[in-house]
Design goal:
Strand content: under 5%
Order of helices and strands: HH
Number of helices: 2
Mean pLDDT: 96
Number of domains: 2
Largest sheet: none
Radius of gyration: 16 Å
Shape: elongated
Number of strands: 0
Structural class: mainly alpha
Distance between the termini: 34 Å
Length: 64
Amino acid sequence: MNEKAVEKFMSKTTEARELLAAIQAEIDDHMNTNPDTLHWGHVGDATHVVESLRDIARFMGHAE
């Protein structure tokens, strides 16, 4: 077993979990948007997030 690779892999999975938690918090907060000032740029931002997450899901073997 490659101890250094395992250690780095575990570090990266921890980092991924932290990023997922931050993303989840932003989504739960509606990406810090205000319904009174929401515009199409916000829709574009949300679309970019979804497309990026879809790319990651596909990379990890999950179909849409």
